[in-house]
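Q: My labmate handed me this sequence with no annotations at all. I'd like to see what the chain might look like in three dimensions before we decide whether it's worth expressing. Could you predict it?
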Amino acid sequence: MKIFKYALFVLGGLVILIGAVLAYIAATFDPNQYNPQMVQAVKERTQRTLKLEGDIGLSFWPSIGAKIGKASLSERASDREFAAVEEVRIALKLMPLLSSRAVVDTVRVRGLRASIVKAKDGRTNVDDLAGPPPPKGAPATKDAGADFKADIAGVEITDATVSYADAAAGTKYVLSKLNLKTGRLASGIPTNVEFSAHVQSDTPKLDLAVTLKTRLTFDLEKRSLALADLALETKGAAAGLANLVVKLTGSADVDGAKERARASLAGKVADSSVKARLDIAGFAAPAVNFDVEIDQLDVDRYLAPAPAVAKQKPAASGPEQRFDLSGLRALRAEGALKIGSFKANNVKGSNVRLAVKANGGRVDLDPVTADFYQGKLASAITINAAPATPTFAVRHRFSGISVGPLVKDLADSDILE
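A: Here is what I predict for the chain of 417 residues:
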């Protein structure tokens, strides 16, 4: 017992001594004097320019870490800014390192700005930072640090702005006012996540305020991820719909090993109650299965009013513009849509049922049924985008339709009964 007691005294003394030494180093060592060497090293290795406008502060006890002030990094071989940050704090706890565990204190990032660009050839402006890809056909090698376990106390990102531009698709997305806060991040440990951002895009047109709260669980070995108690809220404009308000709750999970993702959601879209189930199999060429129920849908409510057009001479007619349906060629989907009551262009229907099947560029909407102006509507629609010139086939069957009310709603004319 005395040996054990003395051993504890010796160990405690060593810890105090090491802490004192590290505290002295932290108080006397100035990492900022090495800024020029760091800038030069980044320039030589990445051909990017690193600017350190703020101070770097180090800590050694009880965690070893750093605080970096205002800094920026340029594009490769250019002075154009790629990313910048107002402040970053990160620290590793010392004692767990002895057992090959990296326990990270809360990572804090403030004022991040980043611009990601994908060129027409598929390359991005971050490819060089990830390092060269392994040669094709090279055998997989075991990472020397594969047994090194990571554990992060939390992540806090405040007031970030991230943009993504795709030159081939002609699209650009901007996430501004981005905030993210998590609890402990460790494999197999559930953690709370809070996210908010303002999402904007010109093509497609988006202007949405998004908030998300959920409970996240991930498993690195199984490559799985689950979102429980999910609460999503969006407000703004999207896909031609103005004053859009969406509130959804539910759950979602992703199984990377089996390449499968599922989601179950329910909530409100403006005055509409929605239930949706989504199942995706395969990530390279996904097959989508869905089932959506909506109690009521008034499309006219969400469409922005058409701008007033001044009277002018009709322009000379040019060549017809072809439909671009090439995106349908890779679509594989099957599912059903049910709507209790429906309104579009002031035309009304109820008990709408629509079955969708898409594969190989062919999309079949069959059957499409609805109660329609005291009668019945039964339709079948086929779109074939596989050939160079897409083809369309439409078949409608009306029975017992009251034409007068239909024309009144459609053309605001009461001349036909």
